Amino acid sequence: MILNGSTFSSYRQSPTVSGSLPNGTVVSSNSARCHRARTGDTSGRQSPFEGLPGTVGSVLCVGGNRMSESFVHDPVMLAEILGVFSAMNTGVFIDCTLGGAGHTSAILSAHADMKVLGIDQDDIALSSARSVLDDAGLGGRATLRRARFDEVSRIVAEEGVQSVAGVLFDLGVSSPQFDVAERGFSYRFDAPLDMRMDRSRDFSAHNVVNEYDVEALIDMLRTNADERHAVRIARAIVAARPIRTTSELSEVVSSAIPAPARRRGGHPAKRTFQAIRIEVNSELAILPGAIRDAISLLAPGARLAVLTYHSGEDRIVKSVMRSAETGDCTCPVGLPCACGAQRTVSRVRVSREAGKEELARNPRASSARLRVVEKLPRTEAI
Ligand SMILES: C[S@@+](CC[C@H](N)C(=O)[O-])C[C@H]1O[C@@H](n2cnc3c(N)ncnc32)[C@H](O)[C@@H]1O
After folding, report:
1. CATH match of 78-175+284-381 with 3.40.50.150
2. What is residue 27's predicted lDDT score, i.e. its pLDDT?
3. 99: CA distance to ligand 1 center in Å?
4. More confident residue, 297 or 38
5. Counting CB atoms within 10 angstroms of each CB, which of 119, 160, 213, 348 has the fewest?
6. Ligand 1 pocket test: which of 93, 105, 121 has the largest number of ligand atoms within 8 Å of its C-beta?
7. CATH: 3.90.230.10, 1.10.150.170, 3.40.50.720, 3.40.50.2300. Which one for 199-280?
8. Residues near ligand 1 with C-beta < 6 Å?
């Protein structure tokens, strides 16, 4: 089941690519083949539908003549994730960031008796995932829901899930979100300022860029992206209003950064775009509660795995997991606990980073960090 989905096949490996534009136009190309590296394709290839009226958030790759490479979709640290969940055999696995269903497909293939509840707030991702799962013959064991992952407890209850066998968060943005110009996530394409993963929400990058005051912009740039030039960038943004497009924003940010710094460390607007995307989608704000909820939902012995892609996310995940592992015990190290703290999970030691082979194949994996906890059979005193 997909709620609020529309036919779309951006992620799938298929000789037939078809989809429907938001204006209802159905598109297809029997010979089209898509290249969708998760890392973000920096070649600047564009869909032939980009720039057409009424195609906001629409087609990722159609038209085999323009894109001849074969499809590449590489779920990050897949071998490690499969290893983390290898002991599961019954119950329901919750994928809180379904995306293109890369991890979920592998989990379902490896565990023939299990079902997956897949959550994503992006209607296009959900539709793509549905196609991928159905094409692989796995769709009958997958329930897909459009929701934000801080709603996971409600969704699990609504779906009548009795036993949660494992939970995965693979945070951040997927390549198809970055690579569709009209969605406004990337400084590589000129587009209206948007960056909403959930396109039904009103709040977009346009609101952040044109409505936040200088102090709020500085705070956002520092908190969400550790931007060293936050003050200069924030002042430049406010002075340049109204800013309507990604190109205008990119230009304003680049001009605000001192020339020597502009030549170092990638695109000068990279951190600003990251900070705004995180703000628009409340990525850091909802994370602690969602991780806590996921821990509560786990059956005894079940595991939670979280893949993060920047230090702010990783700090939050580490802190929430540590809190569940130590019960926030305040007693001096080395002395028995006297404060009554209780713990609910134990830490599972895993490879924190992707291996060399994956890093060579998939640059996006270079920033990935994995953390895993396992639910204890019962709550324990420290
Ligand atoms: C990195 S991709 C996941 C890719 C997936 N693991 C795979 O193998 O195909 C992250 C996905 O999580 C979704 N997402 C990010 N934040 C979310 C949130 N708060 N609630 C629900 N979905 C979210 C995004 O829309 C995106 O599709």
Report:
1. yes
2. 27
3. 5
4. 297
5. 160
6. 121
7. 1.10.150.170
8. 75, 97, 99-103, 119-122, 125, 148-149, 170, 172, 174, 197, 281, 286
Residue to mutate (ligand 1; options 74, 94, 97; most atoms within 8 A of CB): 97
- How far is the C-alpha of 103 from the C-alpha of 107, rounded, in Å? 6
Count the alpha carbons within 13 Å of 256 in the hemisphere toward its beta carbon: 23
Q: What are phi and psi of 227, to 5 degrees?
A: -75, 120
Q: Report, in this order, helix, strand and coil percent for the chain, each rounded to 5.
A: 40, 15, 45
DSSP assignment of 240-287: H----BHHHHHHHHHHHS-HHHHTSSS-TTHHHHHHHHHHHTTTTTTH
What's the pLDDT tens digit per position in 95-125?
A: 999 999 999 999 999 999 999 999 999 999 9
Whether 24 shows a pLDDT value over 80: the answer reads no
Instruction: Report the atom number in ligand 1 closest to the C-alpha of 198.
Output: 25
- Ligand 1 centroid distance, CA of 157 (Å): 21
Mean pLDDT of the region 303-326: 96
Counting from 1 in the atom list of ligand 1, the atom nearest the Cα of 147 is: 21
In this prediction the pTM is 0.82
Q: Where are the domains of the chain?
A: 78-175+284-381, 199-280
| Residue whose CA lies nearest to ligand 1 atom number 13 | 97
Cis before 242? omega within 30: yes
Q: Which atom of ligand 1 is nearest to the CA of 122?
A: 25
Quote the pLDDT of residue 73: 53
Q: Mean pLDDT check: name the lowest of 60-64, 212-216, 256-260, 335-339.
A: 60-64
